[in-house]
Protein 1
Amino acid sequence: MKLRKIAELVCGELDGDKDIEILGVKQIEEATEGYITFLSNKRYLKKLRLSRASAVIVSDDIDVEIPKIRVKNPYLAFAKILKAFYPEIEVKRGVDKRAVIGNGVKIGEEVAIYPFVYVGDDVEIGDGSVLYPFVSIGNGSKIGNNTIIYSNVSIYHRVFIGKNVIIHSGAVIGSDGFGFVKMDNGTHQKIPQVGFVIIEDDVEIGANVCVDRATMDKTIIKRGTKLDNFIQIAHNVVIGEDSVIAAQTGISGSCRLGKGVTIGGQVGIIDHINIGDNVILIPQAGVMKDIESNRVFAGIPAMDHTLWKKTCSAIPKLPELIRKVRKIEKGLIQMSEDKKSD
Amino acid sequence: MKLRKIAELVCGELDGDKDIEILGVKQIEEATEGYITFLSNKRYLKKLRLSRASAVIVSDDIDVEIPKIRVKNPYLAFAKILKAFYPEIEVKRGVDKRAVIGNGVKIGEEVAIYPFVYVGDDVEIGDGSVLYPFVSIGNGSKIGNNTIIYSNVSIYHRVFIGKNVIIHSGAVIGSDGFGFVKMDNGTHQKIPQVGFVIIEDDVEIGANVCVDRATMDKTIIKRGTKLDNFIQIAHNVVIGEDSVIAAQTGISGSCRLGKGVTIGGQVGIIDHINIGDNVILIPQAGVMKDIESNRVFAGIPAMDHTLWKKTCSAIPKLPELIRKVRKIEKGLIQMSEDKKSD
Amino acid sequence: MKLRKIAELVCGELDGDKDIEILGVKQIEEATEGYITFLSNKRYLKKLRLSRASAVIVSDDIDVEIPKIRVKNPYLAFAKILKAFYPEIEVKRGVDKRAVIGNGVKIGEEVAIYPFVYVGDDVEIGDGSVLYPFVSIGNGSKIGNNTIIYSNVSIYHRVFIGKNVIIHSGAVIGSDGFGFVKMDNGTHQKIPQVGFVIIEDDVEIGANVCVDRATMDKTIIKRGTKLDNFIQIAHNVVIGEDSVIAAQTGISGSCRLGKGVTIGGQVGIIDHINIGDNVILIPQAGVMKDIESNRVFAGIPAMDHTLWKKTCSAIPKLPELIRKVRKIEKGLIQMSEDKKSD
């Protein structure tokens, strides 16, 4: 692809030889002759100078010899170029005859239903959606348009999934919430989990994620939210729009998260917690209290991020601190004894 | 359903209009006219007064205007009413011809074996059990009566599952324990994992749980224990009766847990630990020593819960404490210098 | 099996009755008459004296009355004997006609492809490999010789797996890396994940593990590394040879781990971290900085193991320490007031 064409693709301003042939895109460290790279952070300018890339996408005018394409967001331009160079993997459209389709199922246009897909009764599948092998969809569930569900995903009954959703392999949507009544004899009686699940448009759900159905009412993941792998979403949780949650995080029953929330990996949130908009949680935090909008929290139990940073550097000093205090105590006892003997 | 009938169902004492028509059950916040709600905790009495529910289930005589049903355990009554209002999802009984059934398999009465189920040789499946699509059962395993196994569950060979068990999608039962011998050249030689797994009656296993088989002998989860999603049960673990374990907890090899144990989410227990009956572990605890019966533990490394609470409120004070001690030290040095100069 | 034959099998030196008939192998606590056991650690010598085992495998000359087989590594001998007593589970060789095989697929000799396996186009499967039911393999992927893939494993397109690999049920290899560009309006634009995955020879991957494909280039797990269940390997991670990682650990994007690394359960490593050879990470550690070779780290944030041990015993003393310092402060104020009044 000519550099000129790439500049058009990313709506960028080209400075340099327009006719260079670009073979692909690579990160700064790996880029060699013929490849375009991108500078998303000025910290890597030094690396860029050492790079053998033939062109670079930048956000500001920087002083490098190779041709530049200037854009507002080089990382976004990178995403666009990747898409251009690597066409999406080919999908076999149609409903394979080795799939099992239940009664009363409505299937849209241009879908791809692979062999060994199981679709229960009264399911709706929107136009252009793709169901890979070993996907199971329970009775009465709905899949919107252009949604991709990878192999071995289990969708229970009454799960309502929007359009442009991506669900990776091994995810489970609509399993029972974890609710029991403790009886006098110590046994646990199951509370029927009769609610449902809503996954709104543009959500991405990572591999082996679990989203439990609500006890009553609904568990809901709102538009544009992205979940990494192994995330636990318990019954009746609400996650706001455009949130991003990293792998192995667990959100307990009935938590309500605002929009634009960012959560690191292995975070835990106990049940019935409210978290405001645009909150950021640092990896491995343990949240046990509500958090207001726009706060950054970290640690177990979670505290303000700046305080947490201080405690992090303080904790390794603790053994030394204990020694110091012991020394001070002895010194004071000595002083008071000296005084008495005076 | 008439309120009178609901009172009968939950064996409760009705105070108010017996003939109100009840449309369903809802939580206090959501309940509207025509719905019954329940008060499990007096803390929510204020909410109840604001609720538009048409009836309420309570444990004590409380002063509200709407009709009341008095029962010993409102939460249990709630579970019963849910069951009455929401009939269980319909199951297609019979052995689907698109399932694969091995040699020497014994299948009980009234089972439901869905399309795309794989049953290995010499397996037994009890009366009334349900195997959803993409369930795989290895050679020689047994499933008791009235057990439900949701889609995409993998059960290896020689796994013995009791009756009234529920296993949610994506769970893996009987995978190899994690055991290797380190060789002189740094490589790791696999130790054959030749043991088996027992899941006793009335156990519930959450989505994407793993229960490894024993190296030798058995891994066992005893009667009535409930596991949430993403729980790791390593080889040779024993979990006692009626225990409840929340999501993302990991229990390492050869741990022995008593009965009635309650474990929060994201807890980790290192290998060969003994935990007594009725122990409670707070979420995110890290257990590195045995714990006696009836104790409540928390923190990393796990300590008594009351001590942990104190350390939790102490840790954020640590940076300030370090400053204080530094100040005291300086003060003391000053004092001792003042003394010398006296 | 005669004891003499067992001694030959493990290349050991037999001291005692060569002709005893051995029925099997058991751990010290469980071993009864007719069984052989092993002593891997002298700590258990006392238990051995109480054991009713008929023979024992030891590394040193110890003073016990029952017949002994002396070997260099009793644990390895144990593994060999287990293998001899418990033959591997029988596998049905051949390509089952109820499997779906894509176009251009190359299948080696003596493979076992079970019913309900889905193999995409242009896949290669090496000699002697086993694919259990509900395994899905994406277009262009390769499986080496004698590799075992258990049921419900999802392998995406362009995943390259070596020989003698074992992948347990529910594992997902090649799902998209977690990468998005945040737009001005708060939404997140997906970055195409166009890289691939390499799993080298002799790797074992636990149940429900996730290995994400690289954004560009590759995610790679090198020869002989063993992963326990529920491990998250993010995009572009490199894990060196002969490493061992315990369950529920998460390794974030672009981390590079050396060879011979040992990681405990529930460890978290943030993105772009470099970890040297033979590093040991204690369970539940949170790594936020690079770690040099041969170090042992623990805690959140991870610190040197010996320091961590000290802080672990210091933390429960913190509430008491705060009280002490408060007392000292009061004492000093009193002293200074006494002085003034002097």
Protein 2
Amino acid sequence: MTINAYGALAGDRALELLSITRRAPSAHDVQIDIAYCGVCHSDLHQVRSEWAGTLYPCVPGHEIVGRVSAVGAHVTDFQLGDLVGVGCIVDSCQHCEECDEGLENYCDNMVGTYNGPTQDAPGHTLGGYSQKIVVHERYVLRITHPEAQLAAVAPLLCAGITTYSPLRHWHVGPGKKVGVVGIGGLGHMGIKLAHAMGAYVVAFTTSESKREAAKALGADDVVVSRHAEEMDTHAKSLDFILNTVAAPHDLDIFFALLKRDGTMALVGAPATPHPSPQVFNLIMKRRSLAGSMIGGIPETQEMLDFCAEHGIVADIEMIRADEINVAYERMLKGDVKYRFVIDNASLMA
Amino acid sequence: MTINAYGALAGDRALELLSITRRAPSAHDVQIDIAYCGVCHSDLHQVRSEWAGTLYPCVPGHEIVGRVSAVGAHVTDFQLGDLVGVGCIVDSCQHCEECDEGLENYCDNMVGTYNGPTQDAPGHTLGGYSQKIVVHERYVLRITHPEAQLAAVAPLLCAGITTYSPLRHWHVGPGKKVGVVGIGGLGHMGIKLAHAMGAYVVAFTTSESKREAAKALGADDVVVSRHAEEMDTHAKSLDFILNTVAAPHDLDIFFALLKRDGTMALVGAPATPHPSPQVFNLIMKRRSLAGSMIGGIPETQEMLDFCAEHGIVADIEMIRADEINVAYERMLKGDVKYRFVIDNASLMA
């Protein structure tokens, strides 16, 4: 089937309207009419070839929500018309230790929603800036939010799970004091989720102007990280820090805020490394620096259900597909509160 | 009481014979006639003022073993003649969360065995390169090894606990595959301990010449870390890495060997930072970089008992106190297998 999509033909070209094909659903496939697709910073890195190995045409998008429009013969969990989502993963080996544990995100053969290997034309996966997508049922998520919130649910599929998974893995909950560094697409979800989990949340930003917004998102306290004396008031007091900032920055000022046995988890990967952390900061309190990457399929479903139960969605700004190039420029300037979402109806011919 | 010691009067002077005083034992004090004292790399850093804040005269030494020669009125656990040890800690606040949990090593007011604050003359603590030491009973360890092994027990008080504590904290045991990076004072203990705990131990060294020695210490496999293809055979296979190397080095080649959720713990602190680790290496498999510093008093006793039970001591080379300056030069060249120990009888007038 031939559909419309928005993507780029080369790393130095703007995104434009493209015509792509999707496979007919196999026995275990779910075909989805995409209603909305969130715009992740990874989309921009990939499509502009800022990461190695981008294949063209490149159609980004891995925060996909929509309705089931066809199912394969063996699909029992999804029916026509169901509200569903697809995140960063559309395939994996399905038999390694990671897949067996529902941690498909750590499978060595995880297939990303775009730029991943596939038998389908053109030989690599094409993402959610498109009218439809066909995905194996294992990687399809059920959405129980009210339909009116559907566009704002889209960013949960990447920004939501990327922050939810480390918060759960490092046992954030009542009685815990948690830092969230950066108040952008990921960070604003981190604040909402950590707050809903019952933790005391301290948001860290470099912008004085974000102080009130962070409180509105659910932060109990907001610290402008350039102010050393403000930072000092939280010295050795945080159980966990979720660091969402991908730009290289000084990690040591945050380690100093962790209690003994505290962990700072990075979920953003800078193009060049952070300044090297002081080893003494780790050794003196048995602290850890960790990384975390999106989340597995069962945990993504758990996150969606948690968000539906707590009335959590992303704060979004809706755009038409043909506004994506402008949106990228605004995203680079941090000029979005907090996530662009494409209205995929704008892809209609 | 006035005793002989070996120490330095300034950072640029050699160590020499000094006369120092020790307090008379208070109600909870144990007075120890020091038989042997291990030589730790920290001793050299401190006495040469390579770390900030060295106070002079500086008498290093925190791997102390000997016999009880006096006890305070309220001491019930130790008697005259008992074989005992003192490690890196001679005092702490005794009422914080860390002290309450027996993690005095992470107490904000931990007092080191040398260069720490004290009421005793000259106002800072003086270590084990001396004839006697007087220490609060809380910080005195019981030694159950045969007396003939006493000199080789000394390094357990720092090198032993510094490696034992992270191995235990990160659950090293049967069924686990563990890397030990560096085969020196710390690393040779790490290999022995991880082996005794039942793990499969892979030793990493930059020296082809250490291959056989590492196997003799208990390594199941030895990898020369300069050989990329040898490293690759262990890719994504290690549960935990104990990294004992204090010199700045590439951490990324070791991260690549950790399984999902694996941790590399650093126990050496380089004077200048390691090259900054690649964040992708942490994120892709939810790996962690951690630090660990010595161990608490209960765990130090547990380690000594574990070593006695398993017949574990350090591999040592005995020296006289007046050989310490030469020993430091040899230590800097890695020319010791694997720990110098001072025979404190050589301090007699």
